[in-house]
Specification:
The chain is built from eleven helices and eleven strands. It is α/β, with parallel strands linked by helices. Helix 8 links the parallel strand 2 and strand 3. The radius of gyration is 19 Å and the shape is globular. It starts with a helix and ends with a helix.
Length: 268
């Protein structure tokens, strides 16, 4: 462990640019729930016991039972709005901003925590979308808009919405979060595509520089972030208390995100 942390600190110290990959484990130290496995989901949402996360996080409910759909996503939206990013975000940003070619964040999280921690929105790719943006559930247009004006009250005993539901700004049908859900053929990925273009442009600009890739809390169940981080040419640092196996040459740190960041920062 000590050797891995020393190697990670040396890699960051010698880097010209930093790619930050983040999965759900990045938010656990901020107090956000871990949906790993059915028990993790049911502990966070007891009324859904017997259902899997993939069953509930599905766009079909915005058509069949929008009060249930917005009960679940409205509760998450409120939670993410109320949650302050842990101090590890500040440390990451300090490291990244000191590098001559800066940083980019590649995250599967939809919580907006990096933006709240003052990372530039122009340097973040949210590959599964963001709960802070909405689209029409009936796909009447390709427009995506911010959810800032929507406050959703939720009955915590049933996880059902009890207030007026967000509606489309064009057709007034029910709106839904601009998030890639399970079994989702209706997600409008235009906003994500714009982020992807900026990300690819950044990768082109840093092609001949020394890149460090630090991946935090990205598990194997939805491996989007892990695959992206593994395919980059830079030194990979994988921080994960469970899924910490790494390709040859990469650095494995089997800790939570905050503890690992603080341990590396102590050396830096």
């Amino acid at each position: 462990m000590e050797e891995a942390i020393e190697r990670a600190a040396a890699a960051i110290q010698s880097a010209d640019a930093m790619l930050i990959g983040a999965g759900a484990g990045m938010g656990v130290d901020s107090g956000l729930p871990d949906f790993r496995g059915d028990e993790g989901f049911w502990n966070a949402y007891p009324p859904f016991r017997g259902k899997r996360f993939a069953e509930v996080s599905n766009p079909i409910w915005f058509h069949r039972d929008p009060e249930q759909a917005w009960g679940f996503f409205g509760h998450r939206l409120n939670l993410y709005r109320e949650t302050a990013p842990h101090s590890g975000f500040d440390v990451l940003l300090r490291w990244a901003e000191e590098l001559p070619h800066g940083y980019f964040v590649f995250t599967s999280n939809v919580d907006g925590q990096f933006q709240k921690a003052d990372f530039s929105s122009e340097q973040i790719l949210e590959c599964h979308g963001s709960i802070h943006y909405l689209q029409c559930a009936e796909s009447c247009s390709a427009e995506i808009w911010q959810a800032d004006d929507n406050d959703i009250s939720v009955d915590l005993e049933t996880i059902r919405a009890t207030s007026t539901l967000p509606t489309c700004i064009h057709c007034e049908a029910v709106a839904r979060p601009n998030i890639l859900m399970f079994g989702d053929y209706e997600w409008n990925q235009d906003r994500c595509d714009g982020q992807q273009e900026r990300y690819l442009d950044w990768l082109r600009r840093i092609r001949d520089t020394q890149l460090v890739v630090i991946e935090l809390g990205a598990g194997r169940s939805v491996p989007t972030v892990r695959r992206e981080c593994e395919r980059q040419r830079g030194q990979l640092i994988r921080v994960n208390p469970r899924d910490h196996d790494v390709p040859e040459g990469a650095i494995s740190i089997p800790l939570g995100a905050l503890e690992a960041i603080e341990s590396i920062d102590d050396l830096l």
